[in-house]
Amino acid sequence: MLLPRVGVFLLVGLCLVSQASAEDLLSPAKREIAMKLVSSAENSSLDWRKQYAYIEDIDDDRGYTAGLIGFTSANGDMLDVVERYTAQRAANPLAGYLPALKTLAEEESSAHTGLDPDFVSAWKQAANDPAFRAAHDNILTEQYLEPAVKQAKEDGLNTLGQFIYYDALVMHGPGNQREAFGGIRAAARAVAKTPAQGGGEKAWLNAFLDARVKIMREEKAHEETSRVELEQRRFLKEDNYSLSPPLRWRTNDEDFVIER
C-alpha cells in the first residue's frame, strides 16, 4: 500500500533528522575523526589510542599534562580521571597520589609536590588498564566533548563548529575568564553573530578562531597556531561543515590525512 504524500514527506523528514543527529561529533565516526585531529596537534600522531600513556610537564604552568587531551595536575581534570578510576578499581597505581592531586588542584599549583619521583611511571602503568582508559574516556566526554557539542548546537553550528569548540575547550578549558573557552566565545560575540542569532556560520567561526589565536599567541607553550590556521581554518575555507573525509591538514610542521 502506498503511503499518502504527507506521510512520505514526514518519513523522509524523520530520516533526515535521525541521520543529522547521528552525524554530530558524538557519533562514533565523527568522534574518531575528532580524536585523530586532536592527537595530531597534541602528539604529532593520528594513533590517539597510544596517548593514554602520554605524560610530561610542558612548562605551561599547569603541572603535569597527560592523556588523550592533556589532563593537567594543576587544573583538576587529572584529579577527576584518577578519582573515577579509583572508584572502579580501588587498588591501582595512582590511588596513592589522590591527596597530592587534590591539593595541587585546590591550589591550582604547577608544582609536582607529592607526585615525584614515581608519578609518571605510575600513570604509564595505569594506561594498560581498561578501567583507567574507561575513566579517561568518560571524563573527556562529560567535561569536554558533550559541553562543546551542546554549546555548538545552541549556537547553530554543524559538526565542524562542534569540533572547533571541542578543540578550544581541550586547550583553554571551560570557564568565562578571558583566556578560557567562555572568554574566547565572548570576544567573538563582540564582533560577530552566531548562526542562531542570524549570523553566517563561516563569519562566526572565523571570528571565534581569530579570538582564539589571539589568546594562543599570548599563552606559554601555546604560541604555535597551526592547529587553527592550517587545520580548522582550512576545513572552514573548504566549506566542510560536516567534517567529512578526505581531510588534509598540516600541524606542527607535519602533514596529515584522513582518507575515509
UniProtKB/TrEMBL annotation:
Residues at the active site: E42, D60
Alphabetized PROSITE patterns for the sequence: CHITOSANASE_46_80
Gene Ontology biological-process entries: carbohydrate metabolic process
Sorted UniProt keywords: Signal
Gene Ontology cellular component list: extracellular region
Superkingdom of this protein's organism: Bacteria
Pfam hit, one: Glyco_hydro_46
SUPFAM superfamilies per record: Lysozyme-like
GO molecular function: chitosanase activity
Signal sequence, renumbered to the chain: 1-22
CDD domains on file: chitosanase_GH46 (cd00978)
The name this protein goes by in its record: Chitosanase
Protein source organism: Cedecea neteri
